[in-house]
Amino acid sequence: MRQVTINIAISAQDYLAHYQGIVKEVVARSSDGRNIRFPSTILQPFVSHHGVHGQFVISFDENNKLQGIRKTG
Length: 73
Fold this sequence. Notes:
two-stranded antiparallel ribbon; globular; CATH 2.40.50; three-stranded antiparallel β-sheet; 11% helix
């Protein structure tokens, strides 16, 4: 399984557009410089009153299918 590390800082106000379905994807730069696009719904378990902030590891298979996400920092 492949993994990529990303840092995310989305304010509560900005995440509201994701929650409402207006915005459906997040694009973030990985620690190795790649742009990573993924569905914003995978961030829902990590949303607080301040939005979504922290370092995350996204796992995906050899076909680039999302396998999971976990917060590391």
